[in-house]
Amino acid sequence: MKPTRGAWCAIAVAALTLATGCGSGGGDDGGDGASGGAKKGGGSATIALFLPETKTTRYEAFDRPLFQARVKQLCPGCEVIYGNADQDPAKQQAQVESAIAQGADVIALDAVDAKAVAPQVNQARQRRIPVIAYDRLITGIDYAYFVSFNNVRVGEMQGQALLDALKARGTLGKGQIVMLNGSPTDPSSADYKKGAHNVLDGKVRIGREFDTPDWSPDKAQQEMEQAITALGRERVVGVLSANDGMAGGAIAAMKRAGYDPLPPITGQDAELTAVQRIVTGEQNMTVYLNIRAQAYKAAELAVALANGDRPAAPAKVDNGTSGIPAFLLDPTAVTKDRIKDTIVKDGFWTVAKICAGEAARACAGAGLR
User: Fold this and answer.
1) Where would I find the Periplasmic binding protein domain in this sequence (predicted)?
2) Alpha carbon distance 358, 360 (integer Å)
């Protein structure tokens, strides 16, 4: 996913007015730090954004520039502190502690390890610095907001798409599937897995299932190779992959094992290489997440909190300790016939980018030429 930062920052967006009927009011922040000393009536504040890793293309190509652009649009005088943990929980802990020491007014945090970072969230809470859990739920402590997608629904979409593909090929009930779930330290992974099992259990045999450390494509490839060896090549009829990066690893393993054609495989994130694989038929589907909407919403909340406001949230999510005010966006399942009306229509990827290289010849069949 390689669009220029400038291209995204130039996107014209309608201003979204945040409801402030639940403003901070008096001095009590209700325990989450959301109405502490972060009031910046002069239009300046320090907002920190911390993302978990770089292996998944979206974080550096989309989440970071979109969040930063929206903050600057709403608050030109605001400073954004940024850090990427490179999948290292200790590094992320240090990044958050540094932001607290630098006097950050608000922290938006996509946790590498949701449990490991809880002490730093508590430090922020004690300093009355509101924290927004971005994309991944942080467990075990109260904080201001959670901004993500309906993650159980993501898993259900993946499971249903895989069932539909197996039925279309006439292979449902004639073999087993492999499940490549996400990182066990990411609470979202459990939601994706739950959603997939909601759809798949009792309808298909699951031959092997893995919780893939770090969402690593390389580890997913190794897991897929293990599954093929254990089950036998002819017995694997489909793969439930929780994201596009791992799907790429699994596809590499299946190609090496001599699959032709490849069994249907799912994904998530609408990475450019995955969209091209869908066009050419190597990947069955992806789940498209409107990252622009997510990044903008988190940025809007961060600026509001820095100004001492506390917008009302439409939902609450139980993180094991508290009901966290939440904004949960809707995911979209995308197969070949839906690329044009979703990913292209929203400007997430252009036809020119999708139809480059090996995907060019197949684009007419996907309605992209």
Assistant:
1) 47-309
2) 6
Q: Can you tell me the distance from the alpha carbon of 289 to that of 306, in angstroms, rounded to the nearest whole number?
A: 27
Q: Residue 325 phi/psi, 5° resolution?
A: -55, 130
Question: What SS3 string covers 209-278?
Answer: EEECHHHCHHHHHHHHHHHHHHHCHHHEEEEEECCHHHHHHHHHHHHHCCCCCCCCECCCCCCHHHHHHH
CB 286 within 8 A of CB 275: yes
Residue range 302-320, pLDDT digits in tens: 999 999 999 999 999 999 9
Strand 205-211 to strand 79-84: parallel, antiparallel, or no bridges (unpaired)?
A: unpaired
**In angstroms, rounded to a whole number, what is the distance separating the alpha carbons of residues 42 and 161?**
50
Domains 5-149+290-330 and 151-288+333-366 share a fold: yes
CATH number of 151-288+333-366: 3.40.50.2300
Helix (H) or strand (E) holding 83: strand 79-84
Tell me the fold of 5-149+290-330: Rossmann fold (3.40.50)
Q: Do residues 38 and 105 make contact, with C-beta atoms less than 8 angstroms apart?
A: yes
Q: What is the pLDDT of residue 366?
A: 86
* Residue-range domain boundaries for the chain: 5-149+290-330, 151-288+333-366
pTM for this one? 0.84
Fill in the amino acid letter for 260.
Answer: D
Could you give the residue ranges of the DSSP H alpha helices within 62-186? 64-74, 89-101, 118-126, 151-169
Q: Answer yes or no: are the C-beta atoms of 75 and 99 closer than 8 Å.
A: no
Q: Are 196 and 158 in contact (CB under 8 A)?
A: yes
